[in-house]
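Methods — Computational structure assignment.
A single polypeptide chain was analysed. Its primary sequence is given first, followed by the predicted tertiary structure written as structure tokens.
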Amino acid sequence: MSQALVKIAAGWLLGLMLAVAGAIVAVNLVNNSAASPQQPVREYLDALQHGEGERALGILRATVPQSNAAMLDGTALQTAASRIANVKLGDAEERSGNQVMVPMEYTIDGSRLRTEFLLEKSGTEWLMFNKWTFVPAALPTVDVSVVNASEATVNGIPVNMPNGRNSFAVFYPGEYEASLNGEYFAAPATHATVSARDVPAAPLNLLTEATGGLKDAVGDKVKQFLDSCAAEAVKQQQLQPDCPFYHATNNRVTLGTIKWNITEYPKISIEPFGGRWVVAPLEGKARVTAQQVDLFTGAVSELNVEHDFSFTTRLDINADTITVTPLLSF
């Protein structure tokens, strides 16, 4: 009987030892996976990819600096994280103060990047499983500027740009794109990659240009002015009308024969200057034809002269209204 009890006890002891060993292995496995320092990073990335800014902010334990918060949620946030690919989390590296650093390597648009996350051990769960949290810090910001405009698009979201500038709080890592696509003004897209909380991101500077639509609209108004001016000069039979063009002569011109027409219309160039948009000086050609009499000889001849002309304008744009005011000097 005693030998049987010893065998039973030995069996129970072996089973207990195996159970304890299994529990230790299980705890270690959990601490190296679900309870590892990498787990909060995985959860944070998941929140970014789903555009869940509130959850991401809570996991990161970050503070939001004084800035525009348009990039911290929804489509703008998803867009920032959508280009993150080939993610690889490295082993945690010990740091002072019961902290660890978790490196993450990844690519954005084919460029290989690295972000380091600082975490700290904040306790245990069920007395066995480690609990890790991010070390609190402020979010980085991205500065955006736009020439002669009060709005822009950042990561697909229309944003206000007071005095042509704004600063946006952003999560990291992420890719941020600013652009301007208006009917009359546009700017090519610019990109900035934010890979760390303490590395300043390159500012997004939008170099606004007048669109072809605006140039065509201004060109139509200039053409209308010149055609109208030429028609009025013919109607009034004037060689020196209130127009950018004129003809001076010592001969006597026969009234009823004077004709003006525009042979070359100005090319339109619109540039920013002094906080507004200006039309570059306009240059063109006009032809005058008429019958003229030489006052000394009495000879009659045909007048047919092409004149270069130039003038400036003032451009005013209010909502959908474009006003072009010719500025003539006599």
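Note: Helices lie at 2-31, 38-49, 53-60, 74-82, 212-236.
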